[in-house]
Design goal:
This protein is α/β, with parallel strands linked by helices and 298 residues long. The protein contains 13 helices and eight strands. It binds sulfopyruvate and magnesium ion.
Length: 298
């Protein structure tokens, strides 16, 4: 059992809503932790976008794993990894769970779409996987873990694919029976109406997570009042960095110097703190002291 899997499970089953901040790198995850979020979402969209690639299973599982493991290693809060539709068949899912668990992730989320998946907001194939096939993958994921607290989230894309509430509820019941630890209900409309209708009609026991990308007006408090167990701010950090970099880079180009942006960008001191440079310096100082001690013994 690891402290982080335990922390994620406790957070999701606790009485307050768990706020996940999306990350694409170790550095962005540290900023999420610094800002006080309870957990990190290793976002497939962010990790792909940081490599200027579509969020459509273009990256291999190994590439996604490496990015997620770097994120997990950088923070003390638990990280839930976005694992798309599980990277293939049931063998891929079992290998995925063993790999993500052994690299320090606190849980994985898999969505009930076909491989290769397409980001939920892209017009393109959003067809669902057959219900039994996906539920069997959830069971395979649970059977592959060695830490009983490792979290397996089943993500329902019924609203995204346009098949509606009844299908979402049918899937929720089966995924719960298959052993899912939590559900994620996704929606791409401009209000929380769909996810509220799901939360009200769902009679099961699992915590339900939402991703309010297209209904940003909703607060964490309102979601908690409606009975949700988690909220994922999936991509705002990456979007902020794109806007900030565009603004600063174009100003430098226009000004012909970096003077005008100096006051508005992170200092080198700030970067060194995020890199834990002080730890390195302390280690080097200890090395110098030990070297002198051992040299004296020689
Ligand atoms: C992600 O962040 O990659 C997600 C959420 O899966 S979404 O982009 O809304 O599909
Ligand atoms: Mg994703």
């Amino acid at each position: 059992m690891s402290a982080k899997t335990h922390a994620l499970r406790n957070a999701l089953t606790g009485s307050t809503i768990t706020r996940f901040m999306g990350a694409h790198s170790a550095l962005s995850a540290k900023l999420a932790e610094e800002a006080g979020f309870e957990a990190v979402w290793a976002s497939g969209l962010e990790i792909s976008a940081a490599r200027a690639l579509p969020d459509a299973n273009i990256l291999s599982m190994a590439e996604c794993l490496e990015a997620a493991a770097e994120i997990a290693a950088a923070v003390g809060i638990p990280v839930l990894a976005d694992c798309d539709s599980g990277f293939g068949g049931v063998g891929n899912v079992a290998h995925m769970v063993r790999s993500y668990e052994s690299r320090g992730l606190a849980g994985v989320c898999i969505e009930d779409k076909q491989f290769p998946k397409m980001n939920s907001f892209v017009a393109g194939n959003q067809d669902l996987a057959p219900i039994g096939d996906f539920a069997a993958k959830i069971t395979a994921a649970k059977e592959a873990r060695t830490d009983e607290n490792f979290v397996v989230v089943a993500r329902i894309e019924a609203f995204i694919s346009g098949v509606g509430l009844d299908e979402a509820l049918r899937r929720a019941t089966v995924y719960e029976a298959a052993g899912a630890d939590a559900l994620l209900i996704h929606s791409k409309i401009g209000s929380p109406e769909e996810v509220y209708s799901f939360r009200e009609a769902y009679r099961g026991e699992l915590p339900v997570i939402v991703v309010p990308t297209t209904y940003p007006q909703v607060t964490a408090e309102e979601l908690a009042e409606h009975g949700f167990g988690g909220v994922i701010y999936a991509n705002q950090g990456l979007r902020a960095s794109i806007t900030a970099m565009r603004t600063v880079l174009s100003q430098i180009g226009g000004d012909g110097s970096t003077y005008g942006v100096e006051g508005s960008i992170a200092s080198l001191k700030d970067i060194f703190a995020l890199q834990n440079v002080d730890d390195l310096l302390a280690r080097q100082q200890r090395h110098d002291e030990l070297t002198a001690t051992y040299d004296a013994l020689a």
